[in-house]
Amino acid sequence: MAFISSLLSVQEPSGFWINIIRAFEGATKNYVLAIILLTVVIRLIWGLVDTGTKFNQQYMNSVQTKMQPELAKIKAKYEKQPQVLQQKQNEVYKKYYGKGYYGSCAITIIVMGLNLLIFFTLLSGLNVMSAYKIANSYESIRYTYINCVNVADHYLSNFESQEDKLDRLEYFADYENLKFVIDDENNTIALVYNDVELDKIDYKQDFSSKRPILDYKGETVEIVVEENENIIKLLDVYFPTYEEGEEEWSKDVLLDTKVLTDDEGNTVEEKLYLSQAIQRVAIENVKKVYDETKDSFLWIENIWIADTPFNKSIVSYNTLRGQVRNTFQEGEERIYNAFMPDLKAQKSKTNGYFLLPILCIAAAFLTMQLTKFYNNRKNKKKGLPKVDNEKGKISQIIVPCLLGVFALFYNSVFSIYMLTGQVVSGLLLVPQLMFVDFVMDKRKAKKEKKELENVDYSRKF
Fold first, then answer.
1. Entry pTM
2. What is the pLDDT of residue 6?
3. Most buried pick, 31, 181, 272, 397, via CB within 10 A?
């Protein structure tokens, strides 16, 4: 298939994340695998930073555990006095955390900011890539179809006699043995009947042209006829449109009429028109190019669209126009409707089943629950009470739901990034927490030992 150099004014994107993903794609030969591998690398590197934040979190949790009984007493005592309750709670926080509370909060905010920076810049990069990939696939299909019609027009327009014209139409009447063959190496497209080449022309990537006219001074000048204008003229020759009141098929060429008998024994006529023959042969090439250019993964037909049953794997004209930011020339919808409905009828499928959004929510929730379970189990072993953190309970609901919303409304590639990130984080979580606790216990033991060494046991008189 001949690829196009200028894609609907959508240039191949570049940027920090896109360039990195492209390097991973070169190694894996698959965009989804590239995203998964990149996510694993990011999470492993981020794990070093995250381990530092877990020291801070475990410190906060240990302090929270210590002051939990005192907070419970205050809550029971001042439950009906909200202002006093808040004041007493702040006094407890100041007593246990001291100045370290603000430092811990600052560390958490900085790390959260870096995490959000990675999240949204990568989201932006993948959205740009999504628009490019969708436009690229459409453009490749579009030019394949137009070139098929173009070579058919070249063959049917260059007959030597009326008898020659009728002979040429006979080939289209037997369209099942007719095909269009694209030669990428020589950049040509041929019309072939039973392996015999009937015609061959250059594969066009630009259908615009120049037309001489006389200006107001009587001088000859050239004006550029836009690509879409020429394409629509070509389509109107073989796929005429009908105004209200005009008899359908009256502008088309009848190739063959077959008399058939239906199941009830009634005689019916099946007519084959030239437009139908060209369309059926051209659509075979369109389907082939679609299969070559589409990006699918497991149950997801199009990774550049969200994994939901409300989305189809082939985008509508309005969605496509929005993706390329309205850079279409006038008349593009006419060209889109020339072949895309037939392609959709044969190839468009449900793009998903909400699996990625559900998995993203479940993975995030399980990761948070794993942290809670680990800390409660550790406190139980040490004879400490469970940590009752109301703000933590809220975040355990909000964060997974936010990931689910992003997975629901953005492309599946980004959902795969979020899901992979949550899975890798979950796998790293317990080793990280165990390492943090080991270091904290060592520090605590060292501190206690030093305090014992500094105790003065001499008698004072």
1. 0.81
2. 46
3. 31
